[in-house]
Amino acid sequence: MEGTRPLEGAEGSEPPAEVGDDKIPSVRIFDKRPRSRDFDREIFPSEGGYLVEFSNQGGKHHENPNPPNLRKRRMTCLVSEDGGCENVTDNQTGLCSDHNYKKGRPRVILIHWADWIGRIIPPGRRREDCLTWAPAHLSIIERFVVWTQSEEEQRQPRLKKLDGFVSDLMSTIKGNTPDSTTLQRDLESSSGAMAAQVVSNAREVVNRNFPSEEYASVSVGDWSYKPRELDESVKLGSVPIRTMAALLFLGVASEEANRGDLWTYLQCGRRQEEAKRASVYMPMAYYYLRAHLGATKNMATQSVRQPGSRSLA
Ligand SMILES: [Zn+2]
């Protein structure tokens, strides 16, 4: 079942990993919370007719794995949001002793305030037509891998170029990308500088690895993408490599925001080793399995499968 992975290691109220309490409906906090501000910002002007945008309008809100009270401050129990509990707690799960996890009790799951995505707007389409068009990062990587393999004499230089790009992307995103709720809170209560920083990071990493002067006319070939609201795939012809690179950056950054917890741990002065989620490493593992270790698409997909992950589109 999606979205029910426990906060392993969070003290006091975490359920054991294999607990069989799925018959008790979970309590979902912030599940129906309205989003008061939208964010839609392009990475760079249209190239080859394509636009790539960072947006909070993905519409599929994920479980928030971040312990809400890592600093163990006194706070009102999280169930106050949806259930009116007025108890005070300093548990890092943010749940009082009446609502923390015990066998036979419903599990309390925090839902992110927004679903951040990297959106593609193909030539001739408007943003309104493709609000949730966010190709899965594994699907983007797959297209890149096929591109490296399409011309034998180009294989090594292309792999070398991609290796440098994913390495730069990793070091930029890892630990520097706030979780989805934090990005949304910053947007609603302040200027949205955190989301703007993700956009500027994407632009810098793409420009550094695929500068416009050299790569503006390079394409990874034809591609297709199937939006979840359509029955058929949309054909995407001659997709510019800079468009794909921007999409991959945002896809991985969004995965980190929607499913990762590293930023939160580091912000609270904790060590990287304490983070519980693989997050950003999952797409990178897929890349190396496919590009360097000879795994088939099926083998690589099976190797990186994790609970609740978006399927390979
Ligand atoms: Zn409570």
How would you summarize the topology of this molecule?
Elements: E1 27-29, E2 40-42, E3 51-55, E4 75-76, H1 80-83, E5 88-89, E6 108-110, E7 117-121, H2 137-149, H3 155-173, H4 180-189, H5 193-209, H6 212-215, E8 223-225, E9 234-236, H7 241-259, H8 262-267, H9 281-291, H10 297-303
Parallel strand pairs: 1-6
Antiparallel strand pairs: 2-3, 3-7, 4-5, 8-9
Helix pairs in contact: 2-3, 2-7, 2-9, 3-5, 5-7, 9-10
The chain binds zinc ion.
Tell me what the structure shows.
This protein has 313 residues and is an alpha+beta fold. It has a domain at 135-301. The protein has ten helices and nine strands. Strands 2-3-7 form a three-stranded antiparallel beta sheet. A hairpin with an 8-residue loop joins strand 8 (223-225) and strand 9 (234-236). Residues 1-20 have low confidence and may be disordered. The structure holds zinc ion (ZN). Zinc ion is lined by residues 77, 79, 85, 87, 95-96, 98-99.
